[in-house]
Specification:
- By secondary structure, this protein is of the alpha+beta class.
- The protein is built from 43 helices and 36 strands.
- The strands form nine sheets. Strands 2-1-3-6-7-8 form a six-stranded mixed sheet, with helices on both faces.
- α8 runs antiparallel to α11 and α28 runs parallel beside α31.
- The two termini are about 35 Å apart.
- This is Regulatory-associated protein of mtor.
- Belongs to the WD repeat RAPTOR family.
- InterPro entries: ARM-like, ARM-type_fold, Raptor, Raptor_N, WD40/YVTN_repeat-like_dom_sf, WD40_repeat_dom_sf, WD40_rpt.
- One of its GO terms (biological process) is cellular response to starvation.
Length: about 1250
């Protein structure tokens, strides 16, 4: 598989988009409470008629059992203690049977003490009249002789702008209007929350078996009221007749102890109510009510229980904001089951009180349910009901590991899953667990933090504030860390530093540099990649870290990776080197190290990976921005000198090839000719912005393409020497780090940039020694010359108007040219123009996204889930086996197509071998002359065609720029897709092949200018999607097609066995490109006086390459020999241009060659001469051999296609009239056999015809 890495499937210019925040906005915590109890014990209100007996308990206290003042105090203290369970530290103001004045004083004190927080107001009005229609509550006068009305608006003004009110009174709906208004206003001035027990015209329950403040009991003591009501049902009274209800109040344990019966029951209740709210409420409302404040969350959990209980007694509790009804939610049955299990274990007179308590299997069952959903229902984003329980289980040491593993699997589903997890409240849990000492848990947590920081980088502040970075760096320093775990940890630390200076400072002071630098010397590519990225993020925008890194020799380590076989590692090395550049220094204080490093990086400008070239382009734009003034004059001089050459002016007096800045500028301009469309557009856009920045008053003179500079660059790069080859790139020599300066430029013409720094240049020493010894130009370069005004005048080129305004008047008079001086408006506009920004690299974003893909835990965490289930869930073994089987089935589905293709290959191949025996005896069956499909390419001539081996697709290219995909199984053939290759200038398509035909089916194209492009046509996934360029590179630097001949300037061959692309180009050189590494593997001299016209790899030996030349020589190369002696054999049997070289995959010895004179020669490597020669007595235009069938097809000029066997015997002919009902005379430009079936495609002009044997057509 080639070109199957994640970065091949993503645009180079795409970046991670910021996501909407998941945090609760304007969080307000309860900071004070006022408890108002209007009980008036012993006196019933006048508008309420109570039965006898009636409910009398208040906060589970019987007020009749003591005197009235004492009972009132006890009830107030009991209510305060119930609230202190959730908020023990806030001040509580108790108002017991208050007057208006005392209530106002308590409320205003609370309002002043909370600041920007929220206040709690609890009102128990069971001892006063009902609220009035005027929205008034009732309190007492100072002598307790009258009921005094109190407006709800006045009360809210005392409480402040933010409060939560619990109104435990009848007809509470009458006072809800101000609360509703605060929630519906577009710009609310207040934020009020209301919880009330009943609607208008509804009465509070008065059943003697219930407490008088039933709503308050549900809100403050949910476990106690649930057990009492559940145990009081007739069914339980029948099953447990001897169980006293009061005994349920003494359930063992504490709320905070989850290993006790009471703690477990409370834990289950919290989880169930969270699940009900999560699955029923809008997510924003869930965050506000359940993740804003601990007390508010507890009250709303308990409110769900109150809504369920009180409906059984004729009350309909309501809230503001309004909540969806949840009293019939199916999870309440789970709560009933938990109560049943708990009550059934209470001892009676027949059981011992010391029997062990059997804990509930609720959480184990929920884990199994969540894992089942992850296995089978991951495509449904709404089925995440157990997610709140997963968070609850993180608090339990027994369930934590299993819950974390399931959480990671859930987060692997995508960014939507991360958003849901953050919304439900994962963040404080995983932050709290960071100090864990368990290595497995720590690595799982690091993976989770990688997902979180990828989704929301603002979590950096939380990690720095809580010192979480210390735990990550300590993990990174573990010498036993595996490469995968190192990459996960480095990812989190890199995200922690991304665009966050405080994070960089903390990591640098924690010795991150000393930890990561030794990792660059290890052997793992993933360690190299993430060590580079981690160090790059540390240095990016942080000069102190850059200085320390340079002192430690980081640049030398990065330079070693510029020839790494992994493209992503090379790109990360370039990314790291670009971040070493000091961004905050002035031009005068910049180090020579930066410039020397920049020159060495230019050597990889011809890298085969667009990913690497994009990073180099980004670095060049940084240098241009930082040295804008110096490069500005050099860029104009290059254009000016070209203008003199074009207009036959006087000789050039100054040559800026010797300056580092001219090298940077010409390399930047060269990217406007990059074969990758994205890189080309980025370079053009930056140069356009750069010129407008330089000359804001002359922006109308600029076009999107600098043709003069580009043509100048082409002329220079065309003449580079390709005779020497070296794949070594040396780092900077520390002895040559200081630049020697001079006040003048050298006037000698140096070697070109590409000749010195190209991968093909001969380098016995490092790059700078090469320059210093052979050119002596950089040694005398003047890096300070731009500070002084130029005194020597330049000649004005009439084609360069911008140049004119920088000339002196004296020189202008001598040249009789109009001079434009830089006026004040130019200076002012340039001063106020926006800052020139370099291109932004998205390499880090790409690496983060590709690393955060679903992972199978097969290393340190292997079989962790399975072992956990075997330990704690033996009773569910069968179910777990079914889940594992489903997981395996999903993997099999992904490989189904590949397995089918492999089986198809084997069956078809064996069938072809069997058919060969039939062909030897029945010649008529070999006559592939029956046309089964004809396709019209309209007016464009088809020059190359190829079958897809397993799908009904045929690919074609014309002699220009168009690629077509056809369905040849219908007649006439149907065009499925058509797209342009994006050739530049006069170049044209000349080569077509398939890559990964067993899987995705990529298309490889080659152009006459040496550019190779890889296209994904999405035929296997989505035929409606437009083709996407996967990769592209330039085999030879800037070849320009000028010839009008039909022969291709560059000749290509693709070897799928080893992933080599062989390209013959100028200077009689053959370049071998390795698509596995996306770099040039080697350069071979053709050792032929004429250019090659055909290249073909040996299907049996991947190290053998055949070549055919224009003068008829047949050449054999050995790729293992990288010297000039790689040519092993040269045969001169042909006297004219070789059209093609063919060799069967199933035959180790037989090979044929065909020349334009119509001569076909059969070769056997066991003999030095051809074993057979066949003369067609006509000009040969195309030659092809079947991969497995003993058939050869040859096309001759103005005649027909002949079908021969491997013995040279004629098996049939395809006449011109047989397939193409057009003019009589024409040429067959291309022919191609189907790899595994007896089909032949042939092209003539714009028509494509597919032929088959007659007996197959009858069948």
């Amino acid at each position: 598989m080639f070109f199957n890495q994640p970065y091949h499937k993503r645009k180079l210019s795409s970046t991670r988009k910021p996501k909407k925040t998941w945090r609760v906005q304007n969080r307000k915590k309860v900071k004070g409470a006022t408890l108002c109890l209007c009980l008036n014990i012993g006196t019933d209100p006048p508008d309420v008629r109570k039965p006898d007996p009636s409910a009398i308990l208040q906060c589970w206290i019987n007020p009749i059992s003591m005197n009235e003042p004492q009972a009132l105090v006890e009830i107030g203290n009991a209510l305060e203690n119930q609230y202190k369970r959730w908020q023990p530290k806030i001040p509580y103001k108790k108002c017991l049977d208050p007057s208006v004045e005392s209530l106002k004083e308590a409320c205003t004190r609370t309002s002043r003490s909370i600041g920007n927080g929220r206040s709690l107001f609890h009102y128990n009005g069971t001892g006063v009249p009902k609220p009035t229609r005027n929205r008034e509550l009732w309190v007492f006068n100072q002598n307790y002789t009258q009921y005094i009305p109190l407006s709800i608006y006045e009360l809210l003004s005392w409480l402040g702008r933010s409060s939560i009110c619990i109104m435990d009174c009848a007809n509470a709906d009458l006072i809800s209007e101000p609360f509703i208004q605060s929630q519906t206003e577009t710009q609310p001035q207040s934020d009020y929350i209301l919880l009330a027990p009943c609607q208008q015209e509804e009465e509070l329950p008065t059943n003697a078996k219930l407490p008088a403040d039933l709503f308050t009991c549900c809100l403050t003591t949910p476990i106690k009221i649930s057990l009492r009501l559940h145990a009081g049902l007739s069914l339980h009274r029948t099953l447990l007749p001897d169980l006293p209800i009061e005994k349920l109040d003494n359930i063992q344990g504490h709320f905070s102890d989850r290993n006790s019966p009471l703690g477990e029951l409370n834990w289950i209740f919290t989880s169930i109510t969270d699940m009900i709210a999560w699955s029923s409420f809008p997510k924003e409302l869930f965050k506000k009510l359940y993740r804003d404040d601990l007390l508010i969350a507890a009250l709303f959990r308990n409110f769900l229980l109150a809504s369920r209980i009180m409906r059984n007694f004729g009350c309909t509790p309501f809230s503001v904001p309004s909540l969806p009804p949840t009293h019939q939610h199916p999870l309440w049955k789970t709560w009933d089951l938990a109560l049943d299990i708990c009550i059934s274990q209470f001892p009676d007179k027949n059981t011992s009180e010391n029997r062990p308590y059997k804990f509930n299997s609720f959480f184990q069952d929920q884990l199994i349910a969540f894992e089942s959903w992850l296995t089978s229902g991951t495509e449904l984003q709404f089925g995440v009901g157990q997610l709140p329980i997963i968070l609850q289980l993180l608090l339990s040491q027994n369930y934590r590991k299993h819950a974390l593993l399931l959480l990671v699997k859930f987060l692997d589903l995508g960014k939507w899953a991360v958003k849901k997890a953050l919304t439900v409240g994962i963040f404080p849990y995983v932050l709290m667990l960071l100090p864990t000492q368990d290595f497995e848990l720590k690595m799982i947590l690091i993976t989770i933090w990688g997902k979180i920081l990828t989704y929301d980088q603002k979590c950096q502040e939380d990690l720095v504030r809580e010192k979480g970075y210390i735990h990550f760096i300590s993990t990174l320093s573990n010498p036993q860390l595996s490469p995968e775990n190192f990459a996960s940890t480095a990812l989190v630390i890199s995200l922690l530093q991304d665009n966050y200076l405080e994070g960089k400072i903390k990591c640098h002071r924690s010795h991150l540099l000393n930890i990561c630098l030794p990792k660059l010397d290890e052997q793992s590519p993933i360690v190299h990649q993430w060590a580079c990225l981690c160090l790059s993020k540390l240095m990016e925008g942080y000069d102190e870290a850059k200085y320390s890194a340079l002192v430690d020799g980081i640049s030398d380590k990065f330079f070693r990776f510029l020839k790494d076989p992994i493209p992503i590692v090379r790109a990360c090395a370039v990314y790291g080197l670009s971040n070493i550049i000091y961004e905050n220094r002035t031009q005068e204080t910049r180090t020579s190290e930066e410039l020397r490093m920049s020159i060495s990086l230019l050597a990889i400008a011809n890298d085969g990976s667009p990913l690497v070239r994009k990073e180099l382009l980004v670095m060049l734009t940084k240098l241009v921005c930082f040295y804008s003034d110096k490069i500005k004059d050099i860029a104009m001089d290059i254009d000016y000198e070209l203008g003199k050459l074009e207009n036959n002016k006087q000789e050039i007096q100054y040559d800026h090839n010797s300056t580092i800045f001219s090298m940077i500028w010409k390399s930047l301009v060269s990217f406007t000719l990059d074969p990758d469309e994205e890189i080309e557009q980025l370079a053009k856009q930056f140069i356009q912005k750069l010129k407008i920045y330089w000359f804001p008053n002359h922006s109308h003179l600029f076009k999107s393409k600098d043709d003069g500079t580009i043509n100048y660059l082409k002329k220079e790069l065309k003449n580079q020497d390709l005779s020497n080859n070296s794949n070594t790139l040396q780092p900077i020599n520390k002895s040559n780090r200081k630049l020697k300066t001079s006040t003048t430029f050298r006037k000698t013409t140096p070697r070109s940039l590409t000749e010195i720094f190209s991968p093909n240049a001969k380098k016995s020493k490092d790059s700078f020694q090469e320059i210093n010894e052979k050119n002596k130009t950089i040694e005398n370069i003047d890096l300070e010359h731009e500070k002084e005004p130029k005194t020597k005048p330049n000649i004005v080129s009439p084609k360069n108007p911008i140049k004119k305004k920088f000339l002196t008047p004296k020189k202008a008079e001598s040249t009789q040219s109009i001079i434009y001086h830089e006026n004040e408006n130019d200076k002012v506009q340039k001063t106020h123009s926006s800052k020139l920004e370099p291109l932004r690299s998205n390499l880090f974003d790409m690496c983060v996204d590709t690393f955060n893909v679903p992972q199978e835990y097969t290393s340190n965490n292997s079989n962790l889930i399975r072992s956990y289930q075997e330990k704690h869930q033996n009773q569910n073994q069968n179910q777990n086996q079914n889940q594992n089987q489903n997981k395996n089935n999903n993997k099999k589905k992904k490989k189904k197509r590949k397995m089918r293709d492999i089986n198809s290959i084997m069956k078809t191949k064996q069938a072809m071998i069997n058919d060969m025996k039939v062909y030897s005896s029945q010649k008529k069956k070999q006559q592939i002359t029956e046309s089964c499909s004809v396709m019209d390419n309209q007016t464009k001539k088809v020059t190359s065609i190829i079958f897809h081996p397993f799908e009904p697709f045929l690919f074609s290219i014309d002699g220009r720029n168009t690629i077509r995909i056809w369905d040849w199984t219908v007649n006439p053939g149907k065009s499925i897709k058509k797209f342009e290759n994006g050739n530049s200038g006069k170049s044209r398509l000349s080569f077509l092949s398939l890559v990964n035909e067993y899987d995705s089916g990529l298309i490889m194209t080659g152009s006459t200018d040496g550019i190779v492009k890889i296209w994904d046509t999405f035929l296997m996934n989505n035929r409606d999607e437009q083709p996407k360029m996967v990769s592209a590179w330039r085999s030879f630097p800037y070849l320009e097609e000028k010839s009008t001949s039909k022969d291709s300037r560059c000749v290509f061959d693709w070897n799928p066995d080893n992933g080599f692309v062989s390209v013959f180009g100028e200077n009689r050189a053959i370049k071998i490109w390795d698509v596995n590494t996306e770099i040039e593997y080697q350069t071979l001299p053709s050792n032929c006086e004429q250019r090659l016209t055909s290249l073909k790899h040996d299907p049996q030996d991947k190290n053998i390459l055949f070549g055919g030349s224009y003068n008829g020589r047949f050449l054999v190369y050995d790729l293992r020999d990288k010297r000039s002696t790689s040519l092993k054999f040269a045969f001169s049997e042909h006297k004219s241009r070789i059209i093609n070289i063919c060799k069967q995959k199933g035959d180790e010895n037989t090979l044929i060659t065909g020349s334009s004179a119509g001569v076909i020669k059969f070769w056997d490597f066991r003999y030095p001469q051809p074993v057979k020669t066949l003369n067609l007595h006509n000009s040969l235009t195309a030659l092809e051999m079947s991969d497995y069938a003993p058939l050869i097809a040859s096309a001759v000029k103005n005649d027909n296609v002949s079908i021969l066997n491997t013995n040279g015997e004629l098996m049939g002919k395809i006449g011109y009239y047989d397939a193409f009902i057009v003019q009589k005379f024409g040429l067959f430009y291309a022919i191609n056999f189907h790899p595994y079936q007896l089909y032949l495609a042939a092209t003539s002009d714009s028509l494509i015809s597919v032929f088959m044997p007659a007996y197959l057509k009858k069948n």
